[in-house]
Write a structure and sequence with these properties.
The strands form two sheets. The chain has a two-stranded antiparallel ribbon. The protein has a two-stranded antiparallel sheet with strand order 3-4. The longest helix has 6 residues, at 41-46. The protein has helices at residues 41-46, 48-53, and strands at 11-12, 19-20, 28-32, 35-39. The chain is an alpha+beta fold.
Length: 60
C-alpha cells in the first residue's frame, strides 16, 4: 500500500536542492534508507532511466 503523506513543511529536491512551499504533483517521492526524499520534475526527467532501473521487477 502506498503511503500518501503530504509534508507539512517546505520540501526540497534531493538532487538539485530546488525548494517548494507545497509539494508539486509533478515531483517524485522515494524512500531512501528509511527517509522520504523528493525529486523535482526536472531532475526526475533527467534521471528517468536510473529511477526505472531501481523499480522492483514486478512493476514491469
Amino acid at each position: 500500500m502506498n503511503d500518501a503523506r503530504v509534508p507539512e513543511e517546505p520540501v526540497s529536491c534531493a538532487r538539485c536542492g530546488r525548494t517548494a512551499d507545497l509539494l508539486p504533483v509533478t515531483w517524485t517521492c522515494s524512500v531512501e534508507n528509511g527517509r522520504r526524499e523528493y525529486i523535482c520534475d526536472e531532475c526526475a526527467r533527467d534521471n528517468l532511466r536510473a529511477i526505472e532501473a531501481r523499480l522492483n521487477p514486478n512493476w514491469w
